[in-house]
Amino acid sequence: MPRAVPSLLEHALLALAHQEPRSGYALRRVFATTPMGHYSDSPGSIYPALDRLARRGWLSAAVHGAGSLRPRRVFSITPAGLDQLEKWLSARITADDVMWRMDDVMLRFAFVADVLGLAAALAFSCDLEGALAAHVRQLTRFYAAAARAMPVTGRLALASGVEMYEAQHRWAVRAVRELRAHERAARTADRAGRAGGARVPRR
Amino acid sequence: MPRAVPSLLEHALLALAHQEPRSGYALRRVFATTPMGHYSDSPGSIYPALDRLARRGWLSAAVHGAGSLRPRRVFSITPAGLDQLEKWLSARITADDVMWRMDDVMLRFAFVADVLGLAAALAFSCDLEGALAAHVRQLTRFYAAAARAMPVTGRLALASGVEMYEAQHRWAVRAVRELRAHERAARTADRAGRAGGARVPRR
DNA sequence: CGATACATGTAACCGGTTACATGATTTT
DNA sequence: AAAATCATGTAACCGGTTACATGTATCG
User: Fold this and answer.
1) What is the pLDDT of residue B202?
2) Tell me, what's the pLDDT at B1?
3) Which of A15, B132, B135, B150 could in theory staple to B155 by disulfide, Cβ–Cβ 3.0 to 4.6 A?
């Protein structure tokens, strides 16, 4: 019976395997060389996670060099895995998500256009922008009420939290704008392509 | 033998017990009602953590209602606990800290003035400001190199990371400024106090 | 040939999550 | 008296961390 809530690391692995089939080591390198490393590298977490995903039927491992002492496994996503990935990526963003699980939200954001397309990415961003705006309002109220009673650095630490969310919100507004522009560009290219004989490539 | 690296939750509990002796429930409530909840509330983590801290001799538990079926324990910090707390708070900030452990850094910041005083808080902020500036430069370089090859939302997600660090840095600059002002005010008050007969209270 | 990077794993440990259990006090 | 809230805990589960073990390919 598949676990109800896969870990962030498992989702990240699923999404990376969706981009292209990769070996365990190739996956590790992604975590080791990009800010994705926040979702934890180290063989001790990745190889067991890959095993779990394979056992659940979300990844399939093509074994290269089956006879040798060190067979290499290259992981690809399965239809069931893609289902799970899409389910994860298309879940609506809740107030709890932005309050407690921004790491998960941003990981989802990083892959949403890849898997679900530009329109879904745009919807995701709009949702996110709204949820962030609401959370900033709430946090600001909390700050106004609590700041007076707090010692200097405690207050500053709280202010930092508020400002991080404000920055994240400004970013979300820009993300919406950029994705809209992208969509417009894609539509224009599409129309030009159909009108003029598919001269502009879609990718 | 005490663990080498206490968890964030343990440090948070130590710091809160340092502010004033508190019961397990009172501590839980702090986590449940403030953004400190990010360091995890829930009895299943807090009570065992308090047990560990008491076993290590960093907290001492004053038992109220010893005979009853539900004795209450009020935790205070011990000299050994204060040692540990000071050691944690006075550790220099490294590049790794800002890259991988900003949650720990900000938790330390929130308590540093409380435990070590304003001067230490100011030094901490200056360090932090410098480390953040360096990290922003590094991240910006990475972004410039990687952005071109990335899909839209992946690039935007990365940009979000850069902007979060930039916002954190701007905050740090302001924190330094505010703490300097605070120190100046404290010194002035002190001088006025000594000159005019301790009329202005230090706290 | 030896060092280094590539590549894959295992196992012990630990702490956080979730869910459950229970008693005391206050409110309706 | 029932319900809600205050208050304290326990136990199973799970996954990430750390450290270790080992084999393969490449390069100077």
Assistant:
1) 46
2) 43
3) B150
